[in-house]
Design goal:
322 residues, mainly alpha, Na+/H+ antiporter like fold
């Protein structure tokens, strides 16, 4: 492993630590981070390009070989989290901007971090990758209309503008990445080991700018915001696991769907909120980026230390009696 790859691995392994450190810096000294805000959409586009570089058509094979599993994953994702976000916002009586931000977070697709958590938790990683990929492709249609349905009572929403923005910063970069991987496979494979580290740096850059422009407001909404994000993420993980077992999926699949439902593409929610809503609406997603990696890592590590779950349909051998 060369120096560049070691550096990239170190950056990725300390992801949560970097977010916390730089968020605190942005809160204490916000001015240097504020100029980043106008470039958030471009930064997220680069992150999505990196995601596209890691995808291939093999990641979508499960759509045809296991359509029911993928349908459950996609359906639960867009049914559970948007409504959980709406209920949390209503029950806590959040201000309109924060309420819209929590709902927006719930309507966004799952992020690539869910794939990592599924792997650590000994879940069905192939299913996790496919579901998050399909969720991302469907986001331009499902995210704006789910957001309109649930958050339209909090703030005015322009669905067309949101649709165009998601196509520009999600669908086109991901598609470009997939095409580049097809045309320049050898080149892409050489840089693929540092792509996650670049994405981590870009995510941290985006989040620090959100903290910086909201630094003066954080003191007044901090406690209620923390509670909203904790509830949204915790209920999502719980409902994801319960829903998977409710439709009689095996343990490996249930673990994968737990992270697909409970973990968000918070970067997309941040970008959309900063460009089209009040900057305060980006705070739930910014905080979620920190918390979901902590909660997800704890749960994944717990599952990862347990015995390997039996795959669905595998024979179970009874213990012999002496």
């Amino acid at each position: 492993m060369n120096v560049l790859e070691k550096g990239a691995k170190f950056i990725c392994e300390k992801f949560t630590l970097w977010i916390i450190v730089f968020s605190v810096l942005a809160y204490v000294e916000p001015e240097p981070f504020k100029p980043i805000v106008p470039h958030i959409s471009y930064l997220l586009g680069l992150i999505m390009l990196g995601m596209g570089l890691t995808l291939s058509f093999d990641d979508f094979k499960l759509v045809f070989s296991r359509p029911k599993d993928v349908l459950y994953g996609v359906g639960f994702r867009y049914l559970i989290m948007p409504f959980v976000g709406f209920c949390v916002a209503k029950v806590l009586g959040l201000p309109p901007a924060l309420a819209a931000g929590v709902v927006l977070l719930g309507t966004c697709p799952s992020g690539t971090a869910s794939n990592v958590m599924s792997f650590i938790a000994k879940g069905d990683t192939a299913l996790s990758v496919t579901v998050s990929s399909v969720n991302t492709i469907l986001a331009p249609v499902l995210t704006p209309y789910m957001f309109l349905l649930l958050a339209g009572t909090f703030i005015p929403i322009n669905v067309t503008v949101l649709f165009v923005e998601i196509v520009k910063i999600v669908l086109l970069p991901v598609a470009t990445g997939v095409v580049l991987r097809m045309l320049l496979r050898s080149v892409v494979e050489k840089v693929s080991k540092v792509v996650p580290a670049v994405s981590v740096v870009l995510i941290i850059t985006i989040l620090t700018s959100v903290v910086a422009v909201n630094a003066s407001r954080l003191a007044t909404v901090g406690s209620i915001l923390l509670l909203a994000v904790f509830l949204h993420n915790g209920i999502g993980l719980l409902f994801g696991y319960g829903a998977a077992h409710g439709v009689r999926m095996g343990e490996k699949k249930a673990r994968a769907l737990t992270f697909e439902i409970g973990m968000e593409n918070s970067g997309l929610a941040v970008a959309l909120a900063m460009v089209h809503l009040d900057p305060m609406a980006a705070l739930p997603a910014a905080l979620c980026s920190i918390w979901q990696n902590i909660s997800g890592s704890l749960l994944a590590s717990y599952w990862g230390t347990k015995d390997e779950p039996v795959a669905e349909g595998a024979p179970v051998l009874a213990k012999s009696e002496n």
